C-alpha cells in the first residue's frame, strides 16, 4: 500500500495577486487585488475555495500599456474603484487574518506583490507589511529546480509547462488561483525539495535561492559593464554597475525588496567592538549580518521558545541576547514570536516594555 504524501499543499493555503499601474513595486500603484483561501474538506472531496477581490482608484493615471494587460482603465478605476487607502487597509487586514505561520501564502513572483503592498501601506498608512507566515513562490521554485529549461518564465508559460490550468489570465483572481495550483503541482513534482518540506524551511530555501539567482544576475550585469567599458561607453557601464549594486542589495531581502540601495547602506558608520564585552559587543551591524539575522528569525520554527532561540543566536553572533532582541526589533521582526514580523504599533509596544526593563 502506498502511503499518501504528507505535504503542506494538502492543508489550507492562501494565494494573492495584484495588478498594478507598472512594474516598479516601490514607485507604482496597485489597481486590483485578490486573496484566495483554499481549505481542504476531506478525502475525495473538492476543497473549499473562497475568493475576495478589490478594485482601487490608485489616484494616478493608469498607463495604456498596463490597461492592455489587465483591462482596467483610469476612468473605470475612478468610477468603480474605492479609494486606494481604504482598499489597501482592508486588503492588509484580510491577509493578516488568513496568512499564518502554518498557512503559507502562494504568490507568483512574490517579491513584487509583497513589496508593492508594503509600499502602499507605508504610503497611505505609515506602516509596513508584517510577514505573517511563510511564502511559497512558484516562480522562485521553478527557476531553482529546472534551471536548464529554455523559454519564458511568465505565469502562463510556467502553468503551461506543468499543465496547470490558468483561467482569466491577468486578472487578480485568475492569477492568484493559478499560483495556488502551481504551488500544489510543484509540491507533487518535487516532493523531497518542496512538498515534504516544512513551510518555514521552504521559505528559508527560497530566500537562499532568490539571493543566489540575483547575485548571478548582478555578475552578468558587471560582465556587460566591462564590455561597455571596452567599447568606450563609460556612461552605459556606470549604469550597469549601479544596477548590479542595487540587485545585490535587493537579493538579501526576499520577499520584501528594500527601499534603500546598497550605496546608501555602505555609507553607514562602522563602530569598533566595545572592550571587555562579548566578542562583537557594540560592533556595528553590516547589511549582510542584518539580512542573515532577519532571515534566520523569520524562518525559525514558530513553536520555538523565543528566549532560547535568541540566546542561541547571540552565542553564534558574539552578541548579548539583549542586543539580538533589540536588533530584531529594528529589523521589524517580533523578538517574542519566532517566524513573525511586527508592525509599527507592536514594535512601539515592545520597545516600551524593553525600555522599562532597562530603566529608561
Automatic annotation (TrEMBL):
- The UniProt transmembrane annotation reads none
Q: Which SMART domains match?
A: EXOIII (SM00479)
User: Locate the Exonuclease domain: which residues?
Assistant: 12-192
Superkingdom in the source lineage: Bacteria
Q: Which SUPFAM superfamilies match?
A: Ribonuclease H-like
Task: Write the record's keywords in alphabetical order, separated by commas.
Answer: Exonuclease, Hydrolase, Nuclease
Q: Does the keyword Nuclease apply?
A: yes
Q: Does the keyword Transmembrane helix apply?
A: no
What ranges does the record give for the region Disordered, renumbered to this chain? Answer: 265-285
This protein is called DNA polymerase III subunit epsilon
Source organism phylogeny: Bacteria, Bacillati, Actinomycetota, Actinomycetes, Pseudonocardiales
